[in-house]
Amino acid sequence: MIHQYKNNGYNIVLDIASGSVHVVDDLVYDMIELYQDLPEEQIADAIVAKYDSTYSSEDIHEAYEDITALKESGQLFTEDVYKDVIIDFKKRKTVVKALCLHIAHDCNMACKYCFADEGSYNGKPRELMSAEVGKKALDFLVENSGNRVNLEVDFFGGEPLMNFEVIKEIVAYGRSIEKTAGKNFRFTLTTNGILLNDEVTEFCNKEISNVVLSLDGRKCVNDNMRPFVNGKGSYDVIVPKFQNFVAKRGDKSYYVRGTFTRNNLDFLEDFKAMVDLGFQEISLEPVVAGDDCDYSIREEDIEAICNQYDALAAYMIELTKKGKPVTFFHYMLDLNGGPCVYKRLSGCGSGTEYLAVTPTGDLYPCHQFVSYDEYKLGNVFDGIQKTEIIDEFKLCNVYAKDKCRDCFARFYCSGGCAANSFQFHGNILDAYDIGCKLQRKRVECAIMIKAALAEFEEGE
Amino acid sequence: MKRIKTLTNKTLNSTVVKGGCGECQTSCQSACKTSCTVGNQSCENK
Fold first, then answer.
1. Residue-wise pLDDT tens digits, A26-43
2. Residues 6+ apart with CB under 8 A from A275
3. A414 at the B interface (CB within 8 A)?
4. pTM reported for the whole predicted model
5. Using CA atoms, how far apart are residues A389 and B42, in angstroms rounded to an integer?
6. What ipTM does this complex have?
7. I need a surface site. Which of A280, A349, B6, B24 has the fewest CB within 10 A?
8. Smallest Cα–Cα separation from A154: which of B15, B23, B33, B20?
């Protein structure tokens, strides 16, 4: 399968099955479109008809030979053979290697779009995880992780820092068992920043490998969607705390992460506002919400969002050329050292290698499934009881989904979010269509940035 | 090839043999939490 598109003056050709990425001129671009259907002579006729005498017959023949050479070396028109290689997903043995610890089902804010219902997850009691449950969760992870060395544990909520003392206790416990267990814990934390202080900062810089800081961008945008319980905006409280935190972060990873809604379809301005505040690692996510929410993304918003993604890509290229590069999570792409095909087929790992743990120790396929009682798998004390749900998630791969099978982005997004699919279609083998359209656009932009920066580096 | 610049010729096929160790980061764990992107993860199978 070939996917070809033009963006920001670049003609880009993706050979999906091999993962090859080519930047070509107009002649080759048009010839690749025709290559599989027509013999060389007819392609040449079509080129002459379109471009008159712009290209000589030697040019056309040479381009044809180059395309053929790429095809023969497995970089164009390659067949997708992976579904034959990875035959039975259900039989594959999976291990748990990442947990999302819902350390606090409670929150000190009242963000309007919160999928966790301010920590109550669809009416569950507001409660904090005990150290006992947290430690048991780490034991469960070690016991179920097979020979995986790197184990990830995310402190999530609600607002995790409402239970900071327990976080410290769980981390200390993890450090005390990891060596003898032959494991390496990577702790991460997502916070709204309200309770950030020097002690938390120092702790995070020592123990937490990645910290996600929630901020939506401009003050008016942030305060509209991210108020305190009393309705007052949070921007003035959290921004200085985030700036202080990032200043002390050194080379450790962090993300300032925002959500955009249909109330700020000009979200490039929010991205720029975050850059102006001094943040360099940024993620901005489209809100995922049903049509009953006035802020949800609709089909008619997609064009505006895609235009913003284009402008965001151009802005990032401009910053890089000025020697001030910033990272946008969804434009990060490792073309040469990216994940293997197994990872690309099997997706995020929810329900198999990634599970969520509630404050009482109940296990769910991921943090977004905690709202759905029917997806409770078991608990950290007794293990997984509903293995049939695990089997359902094992089958979740790009070949099991009709919408993914022929999508050019399938090896970049790997099938999308199972929770989004469940929310919009009632099963995990479908896909959230708006999310797919935006994902495809982001992949196109990310690759265009690679093309632009390769050209820039060549010119240096 | 004067009309074609190849940004990557590392083929996914080659990872069928060596891949699958599972040590890489869980994709949703890193920054998004609301969508799945795998292409931006790095391989840890050095």
1. 999 999 999 999 999 999
2. A282, A319, A326
3. yes
4. 0.95
5. 29
6. 0.91
7. A280
8. B33
